Each structure stands twice: as C-alpha cells, then as structure tokens.
Amino acid sequence: MNRPASEALCKCPLCAHCGARPVQQLTGEQLAKLWRAFGHEFTPEAWGKIQPQTVVVLRGCEACGFRFFDPGLAGNEAFYRELEEGEAYYAHARPEFQRTLGFARRKGLRRVLDVGCGSGAFLDLARQAGCETCGVELNGVAGQKASAKGHRVFSRLLHELDRGQTAGGFDLISFFQVLEHVAGPAKVLEQAAMFLNPGGWVSVSLPSSEGVYRLAPWEPHQWPPHHISLWRSADLAQLGRAAGLKLLQRGGDLLLGSDLERTWKAHNLSATALAGPPYWGGGWMPRLLCLVYRKAGLKFLSPRWGCSIYGYFQRP
C-alpha cells in the first residue's frame, strides 16, 4: 500500500501546527465500495489521486484538535460533475438559508455574495427579501442556472476577483457547506474579508462532526474526495483567528427525527459495504426511534446535535 503519512500532510489547515495523529483510515478500494452502496460509480478521472490501494487518513491536529485529510485528495471537476448526475446535489432549502436571511434583516444587510451558490437557491430567497444578489460558482452548469434567474454570478475564485469586477463590496458573504471542500479554509475566509463593506459580515455553515454524523463514521460524503475536513464548534473560533476575523455568534442545527433515521440507515448501509457491524434493529429500529423522538418533542430538549454548525464573523 501507499504510505499514509508524511510531514507535509500533517500540517494543520487552521493553526498551521506541524503535528497530527492518525484518527481513522480507509483505502481507496473501501471508499469505492461505500460510494457504490450509495448508488455512485465514479470514473478513474473523478477519483483523481485516490487509487484502490491508496490509504486515506483522517488526522487530528495535536495542537488545536482540528481533523482533516490530505488536501490533495479534494474532489476535482469530474468528481462533482459525476456526483451531480446521480443525485440532486444542490439543496433548495437548508436551515441556514432562512436563519441567515433573518440575521441579514436584523443587521440591515443588503448586498449579498453567496460563495458556492450552486443554482441560486439561497440567492432566490435573498432577492425576495429585497437584497442585491451575487454569487460565486465554479460549476458551469449550476452557475448558468443561477445567472438565468437574474443573479450576477462569477465563475472565478475569490482571489481572482477584485472590487471593480464585483462593482464594490458586500454587506454579507455566505459560505454554506463550502469550506469542508477546500484545502485552505482560513485563506478563503481571509480573501472574502477583502470584499466586505464596513460593518459587513461573513456567514459560515458546515457539517457538524459533533452531531448526528457521529452515528455514521463511514458515510462516504464525509470522506475525500467529497469532504477534506471535519468540523466542531470549537474550530470556528480558530478559523476566525486564522482568517483575521472575529467570531461573534455561533450555534448548531436542531437534531430532527428525519436526520436521525437517515443517518442510522446510512451507517447500516456503510457497514454492510465494509462487512462491518451494523446497528441492531434493521430498518424498523430507526423508524421507531424517529417516531418516538418526534412525538416526544425531543429536538427541543437535546443539544444542538443536528447536521450543521454555523458562525457569523466580522473584522475586529
């Protein structure tokens, strides 16, 4: 097998500490089995650097605890194109959409840039709320859909743009489920801050590794080439420090019964693919748990163990 570690791969993307311990690993062959169990068969081009014998290692920073993979295993254009062909990849409704719009209304934020805007679902809502809408989207097909709806969409990375091209700065810049896909999340946030108007904000949402996803450690969407980092609430403050921003508000999604059921089933599907132990109860146990959870209103009593965490940042 390929060697799973080197000093260069152990540098933390958040605090830059050069020391990380292995937490978990899968081979490329195992990842392919997992994706097939979820209905996806990718071409060699889409797999990029991940070969069947490649050891894909999740590492934890010895200084700040942030967990990350080799950034060189991030998904390429072919991977996301093939992934989108097999599922409705861009969500049309997420908790962070309405939450962020409510935040924008309270703060009087009008000019919005959504980085990774997809086909423009959030921008549609922002325009309905009276905002001026712009987006960044590297997926050409998705970006064209957003443009066709009247949003101004840039098909380049933030560092390739300037305020002249964007017709000025922004009051709100959003990153919804984006930073877990990029090699340098702090650098991307730092670049975004250059486009903020005075008093502007950056809104970030990320999959929560402290929430319901803990039930499905082998779920392939949480591994390369899809995600190359796993996030806790504590990581948001370190992200802000590394980007030169101050984290002023953070929180997490409520855990819904449907999330619990879906993640339970995802683990059992993953376990079957890897010949590992599934959770007891087959299909009826998660349905029963979901029913009891909903009927008892437990989502209002449990901690914020839902799918995502979020944070709002400003320049100090």
Account of the 3D structure:
There is one protein chain. This protein has 316 residues and is α/β, with parallel strands linked by helices. It is 33% helix and 21% strand. It contains ten helices and eleven strands. It has helices at 28-37, 44-47, 77-86, 95-107, 121-128, 140-148, 185-193, 233-243, 257-273, 284-295; strands at residues 20-27, 55-61, 67-68, 111-115, 132-136, 152-154, 170-176, 196-207, 229-230, 246-252, 308-314. Helix 1 (28-37) crosses helix 9 (257-273), helix 7 crosses helix 8 and helix 9 (257-273) runs antiparallel to helix 10. The longest helix has 17 residues, at 257-273. The radius of gyration is 20 Å and the shape is globular.
Helix content: 25-40%
- Weakly predicted, low-confidence segments: 1-5
Q: What is the count of DSSP helices, taking H or I runs of 4+ residues?
A: 10
* Name of the CATH homologous superfamily of the largest domain: Vaccinia Virus protein VP39
CATH structural architecture of the largest domain: 3-Layer(aba) Sandwich
Structural class: alpha/beta
Major beta sheet, strand line-up = 6-5-4-7-8-11-10
Task: Give the distance, in angstroms, between the N- and C-terminal Cα atoms.
Answer: 47 Å
